[in-house]
Amino acid sequence: xxxSAPAPVAVPGLTDHHAHLLEVAGLGPPPAGQAVxxxxxxxxxxxxxxxxxxxxxxxxxxxxxxxxAGLARAAAAGLVEITEMGMRGWxxxxxxxxxxxxAPLPVRVRIYVASGLAEKASQADLDSRRADCxxxxxxxxxxxxxxGWLGPRTCAMCQDFADTxxxxxxxxxxxxxxxxxxxxAARGWRIATHAIGDRAVRTVLDAYDLAWDDDPAATAAAAPxxxxxxxxxxxxxxxxxxxxxxxxxxxxxxxxxxxxxRPALGLPRSAEAYPWSALAAAGVPMLAGTDYPIExxxxxxxxARLAAGRSRRPGFASPEAAPPQALxxxxxxxxxxxxxxxxxxxxxxxxxxxxxxxxDEIEVLGTSAVPxxx
Length: 374
Ligand SMILES: [Zn+2]
Hints:
Elements: E1 9-12, E2 14-19, H1 21-27, H2 36-45, H3 63-76, E3 79-87, H4 90-102, E4 108-114, H5 115-118, H6 123-131, E5 137-145, H7 174-186, E6 190-195, H8 198-211, H9 216-222, E7 225-228, H10 234-243, E8 246-249, H11 253-256, H12 261-265, H13 276-282, E9 286-288, H14 299-308, H15 330-336, E10 343-347, E11 364-369
Parallel strand pairs: 2-3, 3-4, 4-5, 5-6, 6-7, 7-8, 8-9
Antiparallel strand pairs: 1-10, 10-11
Helix pairs in contact: 1-3, 3-4, 7-8, 8-10
The protein binds zinc ion.
């Protein structure tokens, strides 16, 4: 007797709300073991932020075909939409506009422009670029950057790191960030700011209060984002919930960092890292993104890590599981990484209908992405 293959299941299209896919496709993979801490210290000394450093432009011929190949890889992983979180050159947008004139793109693409690039352009130029993106592309917002990372201990903390006795780096204060945000927000640009340590999250929430005149309704309507929001004491979770600020979370960070939380933060603060279940309970809106190439692009691996604490898929297994506060019910995790308006993903099973440990068994059978406009 032959075993019949399971019927394909169509689910709301899988989305990646924070990736650097265009940058990797354009420039190649980042150099291994790059000195992140030294870079952060250099940027802080210069009074700048990492999103104001534009870095190299993509070179060589065939940029459009390299970008389309990157997007095709995303589609093969089951994605129907990606968000490029911090585009550092207009070359990428121009190449994709040309590519979509020839054929539909494999996934639709939302773009947040790096603060340094956005602020070099005139408002009129920014607005006209936003108006002329075509069916598969959206210029959504501008990305700012408040502190460093947890691994190199450069994220900005309210108390000393347990192991280094330092408090990390804050690249910008609330008043300066608010002054930069306000003119963009007034013209309808969405705002996303990288903040990992609790001092950085507090600073960004202060800046959002200033930028939207302490008006919770106005802030909630603009739905500004905090990218990563990794270390969150209870009062910051409550502030995010009250203001409608969106948390841009990474399904893989809590797994990758499982072994460094206690050395870096000590007890009991390590329980304040990646508190996704408390965010969900407080009603903070959440969008999940990989931060590719920092973490893997495969959305089902991320979903397994969010729902089960780890993926056992060959090639994606990790030494430690995520701490319990970083787990979400599969349906909540799935909602943070999918959008029915973006299309459909065809799977061998609905990940919301299986045990979390069985998400690893699900395979991608295909995708159908929907353009933003016909
Ligand atoms: Zn990122």
